[in-house]
User: What shape does this take?
Amino acid sequence: MTYVVTDNCIMCKYTDCVEVCPVDCFYEGENTLVIHPDECIDCGVCEPECPADAIRPDTEPDMEKWVEFNRKYSELWPVITQKKDPLPTAEEMDGVAGKLDKYFSEAPGEGD
Assistant: This one.
């Protein structure tokens, strides 16, 4: 099992999760985060820390695409290990449907 970041992180990018991760497996894009599925140790401490409820275990239905999404971008983006301010749009975008198609950016974030 692994944990993955889903589309509700897009345009929010809360980083409470990276602060508690014991293995530094979060990677930062311009407007979202991902978890490297091969580095995640399945401890689950990140899931309850996410204010947007964007982190899910891969054992939930239809998570295969998110495992591959997280894998792809974790290999392209820089690691992030320290908490940063969320995006200014975080509160208004939390829970908005269709964020992957409408708002996702492939650009990397700054990392640490």
